[in-house]
Design a protein that fits this description.
Radius of gyration: 29 Å
Shape: globular
Mean pLDDT: 93
Largest sheet: 25 strands, parallel
Length: 753
């Protein structure tokens, strides 16, 4: 019996040992797969940043002129006898002598002032000693380019011809109104024209281009033009005919040399799935039914009308060709079809008869409903200096909100919302956009340029302390939170979030991007990033520091934290924290002379990916990236820049070493080589303990060393309070034994002040 018991114990021990050995072997063999599965949906804690607390100016407001919705332009403009319109106040300021005054203030009483466009020219300027301020008082002063629609004018749908086109589940929820009874006509609401810079409508004869169509806003949020599917995208099945686009997707993206002169090119034809075919076939008409398409690249979208549909073959033909060709499985959706008005939050406008239909997202009784009408920029500053717009709300246009082509203009405490173009556009010197809120912007929230690239004179324009969210809603792949260009401009202390595309897109030289809180952007894009620049060797000198970049990318999309695309060079990046990117923390596309140090990178697919695409393009004529080859755009742009001037080579000493000898490709200084970059002293937390990927010539020509690699089980020892989002290094003195130059990131200063 004792022998049997011992034998049984031995068998159990051997079995357990075999199981342990097997499990160990499996763990070693499949550990990456196991880690991949475990961390697939893992999110590192968002950084704990200081809360923004707004301090109100409670001082007594004293105006020189007053405007009120209860005023009269025949009045003198005093507080007791205010003007009715802002235009009349501008006229009064223009006639006022500025000498000896310390400033002129126009107080615009809370209320709504509807106008199509307001322009300030040089004769409307203040001076450095006598600036002119237009500010709200006693409530919110609203400049509105749209039409407010009283909820009481909407009624149930009774027209049988319309009811027959609606879904049974939706017809009782939809309300309508006749816009012509409000004095509006087709010129007010406009036609639908293509949206998206990758459209080809300019190559076709007829009325193919015009302003962005009107939008409808419900309690400040844009409604969705009736579409199918209600969310997400459809996919092309088969490409029957690629059409005569600028490029061909089937022949190594060869370009059509005569594209600009080509008229009425043959269009694209593709097949749709069976369910989509059935829906299209059910429409009473395809007139004015449109498509949103990205038929090859997700960043090359446009809208286009349907030309024809054949149910028997399930083939759909847009009216205009896809610029870059088309491939099976690419994305599109259908919109502006009355039959698709089947979901709360959608709307449809019968442009021929002026009937507006809404499927309200909530009770309509007390809703604020606005139809954007003006196709102009609401406020234009064209040469007027020393102006300030303080606390004004601007909304309701199909164009831009405020356009500044001038110097020394300030926009502060303003709400810019509910418009189809850009929020604020600036071109000049020493303009300031501060403490503003931008929301529901069709394209870019703030677009800033200024400075002189020849002399490297700074523009000194500043975008600071702004809350920017829900932008790029009309031009889905084109808009950004902030677009920064020119020389010596600053984007600082902003919070930017909730958008399909980039938070910050920049170019130019010597700009500064700092202390911004950026999160939940690039929700509908992969070949993108929270902070992006690309395809210039000469646009160097920008500093990116002390930004928090986290939760980048939506479901199924893999964008990056910071992206130096297509040979972008000469960028300096330090002191940033990058967390939870579906793509890479840094994607560096073949450029040179970067300095990237002292950053914390946690839970990105890879911390770094640095390729050699510019070099490969020169060595391999069949390589997909062609732009760095001799005579093509990157080479031409460099030759056209002042890179050899004394000013530039004093500012950027490494440029003196650059070689444009395309016969000497092994020279580290050859322009297309990924040389002179330094990636050192970054702290990386990655589940595989992986720095990332650096292609062969990057390792040969640049310095990739001294970066700290940690695993997730080390985060509690590394950071002060990882679970609470405190990413301050717990023992900085101990860390500096390995990384002597590392400094803690000033988290308390990141975000709005």
């Amino acid at each position: 019996m004792s022998f049997l018991k011992n034998k049984k114990k031995l068998i159990i021990a051997v079995t357990v040992s075999v199981m342990i050995i097997t499990a160990t072997v499996l763990l070693l063999v499949y550990k990456n797969d196991i880690l991949d599965a475990f961390y697939k949906d893992y999110k590192a804690p968002s950084p704990a940043l200081s809360d923004y607390v707004r301090t109100e100016d409670d001082g007594m407001i004293i105006g020189d002129f007053y405007v009120s919705t209860k005023g009269n332009d025949a009045n003198s403009g005093t507080k007791d006898a205010p003007f009715l319109t802002v235009e009349k106040a501008v006229e009064a300021v223009r006639r006022t002598e500025k000498a000896g005054k310390k400033g002129i203030t126009v107080c615009i009483e809370g209320g709504e002032y509807r106008l199509s466009s307001l322009t300030f020219t040089q004769e409307d300027s203040g001076t450095a000693d006598c600036p002119i301020t237009y500010r709200s008082y006693n409530g919110e002063a609203i400049i509105n380019g749209g039409k407010n629609l009283d909820p009481s004018i909407f009624t149930a749908v009774t027209d049988k011809s319309v009811l027959s086109r609606l879904q049974d589940t939706a017809e009782k929820s939809i309300v309508c109104t006749d816009l012509t009874r409000l004095g509006l006509n087709a010129d007010d609401w406009g036609k639908i024209y293509p949206v998206g810079k990758y459209g080809t409508q300019e190559n076709y004869d007829g009325d193919t281009s015009g302003p962005v169509p009107c939008n409808l806003y419900f309690n400040g949020t844009p409604l969705t033009t009736a579409r199918y599917p209600n969310e997400g995208f459809l996919n092309t099945v088969e490409i029957i005919r690629e059409g005569e686009g600028q490029e061909s997707s089937t022949s190594n993206h060869s370009k059509r040399e005569d594209w600009e002169k080509l008229r009425n090119p043959e269009t694209t034809i593709f097949t749709v799935d069976s369910d989509t075919a059935d829906r299209l076939n059910s429409y009473s008409s395809l007139d004015n039914v449109w498509l949103w398409t990205a038929l090859i690249y997700e960043w090359a979208d446009t809208t286009v009308p349907v030309k024809s549909f054949d149910y028997s073959s399930k083939t759909l033909e847009p009216a205009y060709v896809s610029k870059y060709g088309a491939v099976p499985g690419s994305t599109y959706y259908i919109f502006n079809a009355l039959e698709e008005l089947d979901h709360a939050g959608e709307w449809y406008l019968d442009r021929e008869n002026g009937m507006l239909y809404i499927y309200p997202p909530e009770k309509i009784d007390s809703a604020a409903i606005t139809l954007s009408l003006s196709a102009d920029n609401l406020i234009n500053v064209d040469g007027a200096e020393y102006l300030c717009f303080d606390g004004i709300s601007v909304r309701g246009t199909r164009g831009n909100g405020i356009v500044i082509n001038s110097n020394n203009v300030t926009v502060k405490n303003c709400l810019i919302s509910e418009l189809s173009g850009n929020g604020v556009t600036v071109n000049g010197y020493r303009n300031i956009i501060t403490d503003c809120k931008f929301t529901h912007i069709g394209a870019t929230a703030v677009d800033v340029k200024g400075g002189d690239r020849t002399t490297l004179t700074a523009g000194e324009n500043i975008v600071e302390n702004c809350l920017i969210h829900d932008f790029s809603e009309v031009s889905i792949t084109e808009g950004q939170g902030v677009h920064l260009g020119g020389v010596g401009n600053i984007c600082a202390h902003n919070e930017i979030f909730n958008a399909p595309q980039q938070a910050i897109f920049y170019g130019g030289n010597n700009n500064i991007i700092e202390y911004n809180n950026i999160h939940d952007v690039c929700l509908l894009s992969s070949d993108s990033s929270a902070i992006y620049t690309g395809r210039r060797w000469d646009e160097v000198g920008t500093i990116i520091r002390y930004n928090a970049v986290y939760n980048i990318g939506g479901d199924g999309f893999t964008p990056h934290g910071i992206y130096f695309d297509d040979g972008a060079s000469g960028q300096t990046v330090y002191g940033n924290i990058i967390l939870n990117c579906n793509g890479y923390g840094f994607l560096i596309g073949g450029g040179r002379n970067h300095s990237i140090s002292n950053n914390i990178i946690v839970n990105c697919d890879k911390a770094f990916f640095y390729d050699e695409r510019s070099r490969n393009a020169v060595l391999d004529k069949d390589f997909w990236f062609e732009h760095s080859r001799e005579g093509l755009d990157m080479h031409r742009n460099l030759l056209a820049s002042p890179w050899k001037s004394e000013v530039w080579q004093a500012e950027y000493p490494y440029m003196a070493e650059w070689s444009l000898n395309y016969n000497d490709t092994e020279n580290p200084d050859f322009i297309a080589n990924p040389s002179g970059s330094k990636i050192n002293g970054n702290i990386i937390v990655h589940y595989k303990g992986d720095t990332g990927e650096f292609e062969e010539s990057v390792q040969r020509y640049s310095d990739i060393s001294g970066n700290g690699i940690y695993r997730f089980f080390e985060t509690d020892k590394l950071f002060s309070d990882y679970e609470s989002g405190n990413y301050e290094i717990k023992d900085i003195d101990e860390l500096r034994k390995s990384f002597p130059d590392f400094r803690n990131i000033p988290f308390d200063k990141i975000g709005r002040k």
